[in-house]
């Protein structure tokens, strides 16, 4: 955008917030604050209460995650924390939609929430796709519940089959990307992206508070993005999801009281995968099409963790579906960090990389290159430091002097 273009854009924005038109816009923005704020508080509160109830049920039904060689925790913990996240998200979304349907013609509703009436056609148009998303998310959630109950006896093939069925449900409901030249490519990208992100969060859920916190950071960034671009319906959905996550997070931080289980991690990954598909990134004022890669950057940490683990397992000729302690977080602990320090470090990486992505919609091409280079540099530097640390540990192990054996000791 040229200097004159930016000047006129500033003038137009200034005019929008003055006079009668500006008054109406300010009222609508204020009402959006109330709507989003109430949805966040409701989802946060309901999630926190639900976690406490689910924790009791998990203990009563003996749905417990027990320690093993490939897990870092050393005490049995109740599962089903994901039930609270799923329950809260569904209840709050459906409650607001049902309330809108029941009260849209009531006088008191029009008086207090009348500024939203112009959005009703948009909401009604989006409802079929929203219900498709909720159905797909429910399929993944039920699949995760079965996995949590059956434990390691549940074949990963069935897990993948269920995820692909949920992803194909989205295609049938018209939920897909729309930036490729043909529908077939959009279908393939949508299915691969949603299934990939679902499994990425399933894999990164390997340390207290890690998956929940990374998801909350990514969701917060997407709330900011959608609000800035006036995608208010998506802002509302992301806000409810954020409240559901943050209500669970205090129970899941180190030392955790409950785990979300596969039901929670796969549900979180599926929802973020789908909602990033339905969000627009390139606006009419975007100088380039580079913003389409924003989801890759905002969700860069789980993607980096998944790819690095797969590469390590392939290099060591081990099955990629068998768990181990080679995840990003585990390698940070091997560097000398405590669990809580490793999680906070990953939070910081997620936030720093994600904040850069928020500038892409209005960035010139050279600015986009710098932002992308920053993200690549961060993950490249982390990989390099881990490789150096591993090499030094191997050298220390190889050149370690053997302990002297007392010849007078009995055999």
Protein described:
The chain is an all-alpha fold. The protein has helices at residues 3-16, 19-60, 81-103, 107-113, 120-150, 156-172, 183-204, 210-228, 232-252, 261-278, 294-298, 300-315, 328-334, 339-357, 365-398; strands at 64-65, 77-78. Helix 2 (19-60) crosses helix 3. It is globular and about 70 Å long. The protein is 72% helix and 1% strand. Mean pLDDT is 85; it is low at 1-17 and 401-411. It folds into two domains: 16-280, no CATH class; 284-397, no CATH class. A two-stranded antiparallel sheet has the order 1-2. The chain contains 15 helices and two strands. The longest helix has 42 residues, at 19-60.
- Average pLDDT reading: 85
Overall number of domains: 2
Shape: globular
Count of beta strands: 2
* Spatial gap, N to C terminus: 82 Å
Fraction of residues in H or I helices: over 70%
> What kind of sheet is the major sheet?
2 strands, antiparallel
Looking across the biggest beta sheet, what order are the strands in?
A: 1-2
What portion of residues belong to β-strands?
Answer: under 5%
Low-confidence stretches: 1-17, 401-411
Order of helices and strands: HHEEHHHHHHHHHHHHH
Structural class: mainly alpha
- How many DSSP helices? 15
């Amino acid at each position: 955008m040229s200097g004159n273009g930016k000047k006129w854009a500033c003038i137009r924005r200034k005019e929008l917030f003055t006079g009668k038109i500006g008054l109406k816009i300010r009222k609508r923005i204020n009402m959006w604050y109330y709507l989003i704020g109430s949805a966040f508080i409701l989802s946060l509160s309901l999630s926190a209460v639900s976690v406490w109830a689910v924790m009791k049920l998990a203990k009563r039904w003996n749905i417990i995650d027990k320690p093993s060689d490939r897990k870092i925790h050393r005490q049995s913990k109740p599962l089903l924390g994901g039930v609270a996240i799923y329950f809260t998200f569904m209840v709050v979304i459906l409650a607001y939609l049902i309330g809108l349907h029941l009260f849209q013609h009531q006088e008191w509703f029009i008086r207090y929430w009348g500024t939203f009436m112009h959005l009703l056609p948009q909401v009604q148009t989006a409802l079929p796709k929203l219900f498709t998303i909720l159905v797909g998310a429910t399929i993944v959630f039920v699949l995760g519940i079965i996995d949590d109950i059956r434990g390691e006896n549940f074949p990963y093939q069935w897990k993948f089959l269920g995820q692909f069925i949920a992803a194909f449900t989205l295609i049938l409901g018209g939920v897909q990307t729309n930036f490729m030249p043909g529908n077939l490519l959009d279908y393939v990208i949508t299915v691969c992206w949603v299934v990939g992100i679902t499994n990425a969060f399933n894999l990164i859920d390997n340390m207290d508070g890690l998956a929940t916190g990374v998801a909350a950071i990514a969701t917060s960034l997407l709330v900011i993005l959608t609000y800035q671009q006036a995608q208010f319906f998506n802002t509302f959905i992301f806000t409810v999801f954020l409240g559901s996550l943050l209500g669970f997070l205090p129970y899941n931080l180190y030392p955790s009281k409950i785990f979300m289980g596969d039901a929670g991690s796969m549900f979180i990954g599926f929802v973020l995968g789908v909602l990033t598909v339905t969000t627009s990134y390139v606006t009419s004022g975007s100088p380039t099409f580079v913003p389409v890669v924003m989801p890759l950057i905002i969700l860069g940490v789980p993607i980096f963790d998944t790819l690095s683990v797969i590469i390590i397992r392939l290099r060591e000729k081990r099955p990629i579906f068998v768990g181990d302690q080679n995840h990003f977080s585990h390698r940070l602990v091997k560097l000398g960090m405590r669990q809580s320090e490793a999680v906070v470090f990953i939070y910081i990486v997620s936030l720093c990389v994600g904040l850069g992505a928020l500038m892409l919609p209005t960035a010139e091409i050279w600015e986009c290159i710098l932002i992308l280079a920053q993200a690549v540099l961060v993950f490249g530097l982390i990989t390099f430091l881990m490789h150096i640390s591993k090499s030094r540990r191997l050298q220390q192990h190889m050149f370690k002097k053997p302990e002297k054996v007392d010849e007078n000791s009995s055999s």
